[in-house]
Design goal:
about 200 residues; mainly alpha; about 80% helix; flat; Peroxisomal membrane protein 4-like; Pmp4
Length: about 200
């Protein structure tokens, strides 16, 4: 046992098969990160907004955590494997390798329309837009603002989302719609001190 462990440690420390081992470690890290991110989020959202028995709630939490963890691990595996193969075929790393590998992985793993993938894709969309703006400023395609634009950014985002909620709420994602209903509409309903302070409705 000790000899086998020493052999594994030697292999990992030698730098041989680095690309293959990186794919395996990426699979592991994707699974762990997906579980760490999704489990607390699913726990809070399930117990705040979902009805059902305790068993049903824990089943939902487990299912969403597993799905997030599996999807992220699968995507990392596909992405790292494809980029490693393309690098090997061309004897060097190219920018378009990342795009092609992520495109294929995104289609296969995050192309399925479900709640978990929807949340992840929408999260990334906001980061992409922000990143493109920063790239535009860096490359001088967009003029660098003389004042901090963040107050205007916050104002526009909240103005649009509340207008959508009040007048076009079916266009919003269900989880966001539920959260906003709880905050903005359920706060208009009470009958006594108990459901005013301690309970909702």
């Amino acid at each position: 046992m000790a000899t086998a462990l020493a052999g594994v440690n030697h292999l990992l420390g030698s730098g041989r098969f680095k690309e293959v081992l990186g794919v395996i470690k990426g699979l592991r890290n994707g699974a762990v990160y997906g579980a760490k991110i999704r489990a607390p989020h699913a726990f809070v959202m399930t117990f705040l907004f979902k009805d059902g028995s305790l068993l049903e709630k824990f089943r939902d939490i487990t299912q969403m955590t597993y799905q997030h963890s599996r999807n992220l691990a699968s995507f990392v595996f596909i992405y790292k494997a494809l980029t490693a193969i393309m690098k090997w075929l061309e004897n060097s790393k190219k920018q378009y390798h990342s795009f092609i590998a992520a495109f294929i992985g995104g289609y296969l793993i995050f192309g399925e329309n479900n709640k978990v993938n929807m949340q992840i894709n929408l999260y990334l969309l906001s980061r992409i837009i922000f990143g493109f703006v920063k790239m535009g400023v860096k490359k001088k395609v967009i003029a660098e603002p003389k004042r901090d634009p963040f107050p205007w950014f916050g104002a526009i985002i909240w103005a649009i989302i509340l207008w959508q909620f009040e007048y076009h709420r079916q266009s919003l994602q269900p989880s966001l719609r539920s959260s906003m209903t709880y905050i903005y509409e359920d706060s208009n309903v009470w009958h006594n001190l108990r459901d005013f302070l301690l309970y909702n409705k």
